[in-house]
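Risk register update: the risk of archive-format incompatibility is retired. Evidence:
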Amino acid sequence: MTIKECYEKIGGNYDEVLRRMMNEERVLKFVKMFLRDTTYQTLCQEMENQNYPEAFRAAHTLKGLCQNMAFTWLNEPTQELTECLRGGTLKDGALEYFEQVKERYQRTCDEIQKL
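Archived output:
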């Protein structure tokens, strides 16, 4: 599978990330680095611990990673989750968005691992 095909499978915007990073090798490098990032694990841990201020920080960081990598499909629920955690409290809809983030994150990582 090519990196472009991977982006198609994960609902990402390949043209945007390629324009930002200037070449395919750099895109591939950072996509693979995404798998090593621990922000998602921190988000899960803090949600489980009901530590919503730290969960907000992790969600906000993950949102930034998704935006930088043009992972549009994963970014959508991550943005919503971030807003539901803003202020360090759990607002309506947060748990539903968190479930979407978990599902989409796993699918994104599964596809990236096929590269």
